[in-house]
Amino acid sequence: MGLLRAAATTAVVAGTATAVSGRVAGRQAAHNAPPPAPAAAPMEAAPAGPAAPEVSPEAAKVQELAQMHAQGLLTDDEFAAAKAKALGI
Hints:
Structural class: mainly alpha
């Protein structure tokens, strides 16, 4: 019974030490952290340049299919069929 009690005591001490060291490390990290950077003054928004044109999902799909066709992943017939399906034709 003495061995079991010694093992249990060791487990409790080790667990307590781990918990305490974790809290101490957290406090030290918070204490030693650099001060927060001052907030930057709000800047005026730069004038927007020409907006990129919106690409429809269908056009994006056709572009993707064209790349696959150019890489040789799709045959001419597969590309034509997939393009027609993507465009709803």
